[in-house]
Amino acid sequence: MASCRTAPFTVIGTTVVVLLVRDGLGVCLWAGDSRLYRLRDGELEQLTTDHSEPSDPDVESLLGSSNVITRALGGHDEIDLDQLTFEVRPRDRFLLCSDGLYREIGANDLKALLEQG
Q1: Dihedral angle at the C-alpha atoms of 91, 92, 93, 99, nearest 10 degrees?
Q2: Rounded Cα–Cα distance for residues 9 and 50 (Å)
Q3: Which of 11, 12, 94, 107 is deepest in the core (most CB within 10 A)?
Q4: pLDDT tens-digit readout, 3-55
Q5: Nearest residue to 50 (alpha-carbon basis) of 65, 30, 66, 64
Q6: What is the pLDDT of residue 20?
Q7: Alpha carbon 70 to its chain's center
Q8: What value does the mean pLDDT take over residues 63-92?
Q9: Are 88 and 45 in contact (CB under 8 A)?
């Protein structure tokens, strides 16, 4: 993926989360604050850890909750992804999403959506 340059020395990156499931094994790769959630036996669990730092409290009070992404695609020449490998059970359900979803509707609504199928 090519980066988008908006001005000299300004690079815009993107967050990413990828899931591959095969033969009872899951592998997730991610960068940034895009997340992988798993619903298992009625429990919603966030499997990824955000690559972000809390923003300045004064900025948050003016603009609402936000954060500074510490890792993304397109921000550097090399891609630095975290990897997680885990067991997948037959009734597991997964949600891959960006902060645009989980910040808007919250964990209880995410769980309800996954339970509906």
Answers
A1: 170
A2: 25
A3: 94
A4: 555 556 667 788 999 999 999 999 999 999 999 999 999 999 999 999 888 75
A5: 30
A6: 98
A7: 13
A8: 83
A9: no
pLDDT at residue number 62: 47
Phi, psi angle pair for 5, to nearest 5°: -100, 120
Give dist(CA 30, CA 72) in Å, integer: 9
DSSP 50-116: --EEE--HHHHHHH-S-EEES--BTSSSS---EEEEEE--TT-EEEEE-HHHHHHHHHHHHHHHHHH
Q: What per-residue confidence (pLDDT) applies to 77?
A: 80
Backbone region of residue 108 per phi and psi (left: phi > 0; alpha: psi in -120 to 50; beta: other values): alpha
Cα of 4 vs its chain's centroid, Å: 21
Give me 18's structure tokens: 């990828």
